[in-house]
Structures are given as structure tokens and as C-alpha cells.
Amino acid sequence: MPSIAPLPTIAVVGSGPTALYTLSALQKARTPLDITVFEALDEAGRGSPYAPSINNKVMLSNIASIEIPPVLDTMVGWLETRTDKELAAIGLERSEIDEREYYPRLILGTYLKAQFDGLITALQADGHTVRVETGARVTDAALLFEKIRLTVERTDGAASSRLFDHAVLATGHSWPDRTEIKPGYFTSPWPASALNGIRNCSLGIRGTSLSAIDALMTVATNHGAFVEQDGGGLRYEPEPGTEGFKATIMSRKGLIPEADFFYHLPFHPLSICTEEAMEALVESGRTDLLEAVYELFARELARADPDYAARIGLEELNVDTFAEAYFAERQRQDPFDYARANLAEAKGNAANHYAVPWRYAILRMHEVIALVVPHFSVADLERFHRSFKAIFVDDYASVPHESIERLLALHEAGKLSILKLGEDYDLDAEGPEPGAVLMLDGKLIHYPAFVEARGQESLSADDIPFPTLLRQGVVRKSAGGRGIALDDSYRLSFTRPLRREIYCLSLPFLLYRHPFAQGITSSHELGECVGAAILETIEKSVRADVAASEREELAA
Predict the structure, then answer these.
(1) pLDDT tens, 70-91?
(2) What is the rounded CA–CA span in Å between residue 153 and residue 148?
(3) Is residue 57 within 8 Å of residue 110, measured between CB atoms?
């Protein structure tokens, strides 16, 4: 009699958005699965960027509701079915529900947890075995010939080894073990509670993106409050006795991010710089992919917005000089004057449902160009990271209007300035004084409190936190020496005869070769890709088992 094959076993390490979308993709399975989700925190389903233990209520998410790929419900649909009491509990009024709205990270986390819990229930109802283990940190992994062994340590000190057929490392962001590594010097804005000790002093923040803005807001709201003005906009009212609180945000360019701009969804199709064109370039085997990509990019941009192309002198630019022209207009103006005008423009365009052609074209192109970036030569990838990448990041990393309003309010209250660092500066955070000392243009500036908020740094093979994988030699650096070598399905790429079904979706290890792999939409794409790869492997195995069973019956 043919034996009954055990259920395919799948470990998902982490329970944030990438894990959520991986689980959603596994819903398409034609055979029952045995799934275990490991979450190091005490609660599963939110993801650390949206967890209450990490964030402050003033920290805003970096994605509009309309952009979030639904799992069981759209975010607006889920919010609209909440009672007034439930909305009040998360700090939201029914009138504030809108598909274009940017919600606080804590509200987004509540939505993600509801989707996660509902998805687990749906998977179980479909006949899958699903366990969610919280307070369970995966501390090691080893590849065997037929299985993957994970070592799991619980918060109560218990440890165990578990065997799986497939493992998905969806651990998301990498956070430092200690945020304040010396008095007044913080290596990260998170957890936000770590910044509560900054009181009534000069604060420096390296970074000007939403992460830096959120760090600033955490400290600013500990020293005062933002108040709605009768004529619109915000005013910052400092508390008495906080005269010493002043903040400086700083970056190499010294620019404030653009305000979120209106764009059409679904995306309007591109004409020249298309997905098909990118795939053709990859298949062509050309060694000058970056130049070829830029040529298509420039043609698409000129077609989308001829006036903008003429204004920046597009015909005279190349892949190495475009970014300089792109940022030039903003750099010629006072950052706060530009932010004020840009915010007014963005609000007007949103009211009129008008998408600025050049901004909208760049936004759409970054998604198709992302298909080619992993195939760049080492030299081209370095060139891409050096300048051209910045224009796409700037375009898609626009920030909520409320964030710009808060920056302007702080500036008008005399509490905020911005500093252009350029390339020739030094920061000393190892001296005896608290915080850090900035050395710029021959001057020393001491910040008794200093926060590093430059976003997630890319990690490489040596940083993998699983010592056995490193000893096995299956974690290799990608070409160029940064990131890790992965195949097209994000499996570790190696030649040893070991179980291959271990997938790395941990953001810091992807960033070098996949620089746009950030945010919830990327989590969706990654989860869909890995979920499909796992199901394809399982279906092949099932077909092989069926064939073997049929042979056994014939032999009998």
C-alpha cells in the first residue's frame, strides 16, 4: 500500500508585511501545508516598523492607504467597518478615512495585525496547519541534505531545533541592540521611547527623510505641541522652560523631501521605458546596461514632459549628470521657502487630481528599472548607487503633507534649521562630551543630543546572524562584495548538495542589489515571488510522489 506523504513544512521567520504577503501567496496551495511563523516579539502581525513598542503616535507611515496591496480587506475598507469606539481607540475620526491619507504607523500596524490574524484563520479554515509562535527568536539555521534545521530560542530561555522543508527569512529591518550607545548619541530613531531622555538642548539629526522627520517629531512633541490655525496650517507652541530646545536636520544635499504628490492609480502605462524593454535589455547580454537604461529613461521623460526636459537641459545630460540637474532647482532656493511653495503646489494638484508629468513618469519608471538593476555589472552598479539612484529615491520617498507642515511650523517657531553637509565633513561621536561634534567648514558644532536617521544600511554575507550557515559556506557575497548572492526567487545561491529552499527576504541583505526593495509594496512583490516559488517546488514534489506511487502500484 502506498505511503502517505507528510505535509510540506514551511517556516516563516518574522510576522511583518513581508511575512504577511508570503502567507497570502501560500493560500493558493493545492495541497495542505504545515506552516510555522516565528516572531521574536510578544505579539505577531504588525512588523517592527509599526509596533507600539518601537513607535510614537506622531510617527507617520510612508505609504498612502490606496497604495497598500490588500490581503483580506483594503485599508480604507477595513477602517470603514470599524465602530466609532474602535476608531477612537486608535486615534482616528471617521471623517479622516480617505484612500489618499497617510496614517500614523501605529494605525497601519493595527490594520496589518488584523489582516494577519484574519489570514491565519482563513488558512486554517482551508485545511492548512498553521502555528504562530511569539517570543520565539530564530538564532541559527543549518542546511541538511533534505531539510533545513532552525534553532529557536524563547524568551523564557528554552531552546529547540526544528526541521523544515522550506524556510523564509522575513525579518525586515535590522535594529541596533542598543540605541543610545553613549550619553546623548543615538544610532537609530527607534525605539522612539529611547529619545524621550533628550531634554531642552541642541539636537542634531543626520538625515532629512521621513525617518529623520519622525525622530524630530518625537522630541519636538516632548517640548511643545502642534496646533491647528484658524486659517489652516500648523503652529508650534513650545512649552515654558524649553528655550534650549533647538534642532538641526542635516544631509549631504541639505534638502527637505518633497511633499507627497498626486498620481494616478493604477499606473498609466509607459511608452518607451517599459517592462518589456527592460526584459529585452537583460536578455540581450549587453555589458552597458546602465547606459541603455538611461537612454530609455531620458526618451520616456522627454515624451512625458517636454517642458521639464527643456528646463533642465535633458539633451545635454547623461546618467552621471542627470541627478545634479534634477536637484539643482531646489538647491538654488532656501529649503524652507521651497518646501512651502512645493506643499502649496502639491495640495493644489491633489485637489485638481493633476499628476505632474515628470514626477509621475519617474515614479512609474523606478518600478521597471528595478528589474534591471540586479543585472548591472559591478562598475555600473556602483555608478548607479553614486548618483542616478538618488532621483528615484527622492521621487518615491515624498512625505505626507502633515510632515512638511510640522517642519515649517518648527522653523517658523525658531526651533528648526537645516544644514548642508556636502562631502567634506567629519562627525565625532567618540569624544568625552555627550552627543556628537560636527566638524564642517573649519568650525566645530557640538550637539549634546545627536540621532542617526539615515535609513536602513545595507548588510553583507558576513552580517548573517546564523553562524552555522556561515560555516557551511552557503552564504556568499554578491558581485561587488556587498549584499548576498541570491537567485531570482531569493534563494541562497550556492553549489553544495544541500537543501536549497531557504529564502532571504531580510531587507538589509537585499538593498545593494535591490535598492528599491523598501516599503509595503515591495513586501508584497517579495512575498508573492517567494510564495509562488515555494508552491512550485511543492507541486513538483507532489507530482514526483504521485508518479512514484503509481510505479509502486504497477510493481505490486
Answers:
(1) 999 999 999 999 999 999 999 9
(2) 16
(3) no
